[in-house]
Amino acid sequence: MKIAVILCTYNRCHSLAKALESVASSRMPEGVRWEVLVIDNNSSDETALIVREYQQRFPGIFRYIFEPTPGKSNALNRGIRETDADVLTFMDDDVQVRYDWLYMLTRIFEDRQYAGSGGRILPEAGFSRPAWLETSDRYALAPLAVFDLGEEAGELKEAPFGTNMAYRREVFSRFGDFRSDLGPQPGSEIRSEDTEFGMRVLRGGGRLWYEAAAVVYHAVPKQRVEQRYFLEWWHGKGRADVREGNFGGGKNLHFYGIPLIFLRRIIMWSLRGLVSMSPSQRFDSKAKVWWLAGVIQESFGGYRTQRNPSVSQPQGTP
């Protein structure tokens, strides 16, 4: 078996060095060939220099590939094209992996019935939850890329997050590439390129595995533990949900492409935020409002585009 780790990076040379250091320490069984493809998505910092240093320190492990077209999905798809590995794994430039991460994440592929796998993504050591953040919701820490379904492995019924996932190569031949209208790119922080692909696989009958022992630790910069960052993330998530086709159809009444049910919900969550006594409950309501605002904005933009193809969809946040 040959395994490729695809790591896309953009102007994060300092955190990239930590990520490369951690994955370079991976311990794999004899007979398993593996490499790390670093896809530089047009960085202007010292990314190329950092990768060259690691190529010298760990010969045969790291490959540097420059992808000039902006957009994470473009970088991901370039990485897929650049390798003939049987299994493709993915990590980001702001995580650190355990020495056994790569083995734990990929050992399930000895079982032919599984098309992909995902592991646990935990915040880096020292992270503490701010008082305004309600964490009882399963995806409360999704803006920090936290994905934790517990310590027991088992079949995965939802899409894994992109910095700790793996798929057989043939999955991409069957289900296509990552969508270029999703994923961070200049002028847009709309994400979900990873989860959209995972759901495509699941809906197409592919089976996924959750490997609790495959752990990565995600950096949590100070600027991300701020309400503004969370609100903008949820707004982008709402827009991504519409692009994925999760809303907009059905029998709901619409107003300029916007399901009226969402207009009612945004009023409801706004009122709940005003009357809530708990700071975390107030912020939770506000985050839902921003998510709904993203859904409404993208729904309206899609309506305008459908009515007049020359009109581009709106950008920005509330």
What would you note in describing this structure?
The chain has 318 residues and is an alpha/beta fold. The protein folds into 2 domains: 2-222, Spore Coat Polysaccharide Biosynthesis Protein SpsA, Chain A (Alpha-Beta Complex), CATH 3.90.550.10; 227-307, no CATH class. It is built from 9 helices and 11 strands. It has helices spanning 13-24, 47-57, 72-81, 101-106, 169-175, 193-203, 227-243, 260-275, 279-307, and strands at 2-9, 33-40, 62-66, 87-92, 95-97, 116-123, 154-156, 165-168, 208-218, 254-255, 258-259. Mean pLDDT is 90; it is low at 309-318.
CATH topology-level name of the largest domain: Spore Coat Polysaccharide Biosynthesis Protein SpsA, Chain A
What series of H and E elements makes up the topology?
A: EHEHEHEEHEEEHHEHEEHH
Query: What is the CATH architecture assignment of the largest domain?
Result: Alpha-Beta Complex
Radius of gyration: 20 Å
Question: How would you sum up this structure in a few lines?
Answer:
It contains 9 helices and 11 strands. The chain is an alpha/beta fold and 318 residues long.
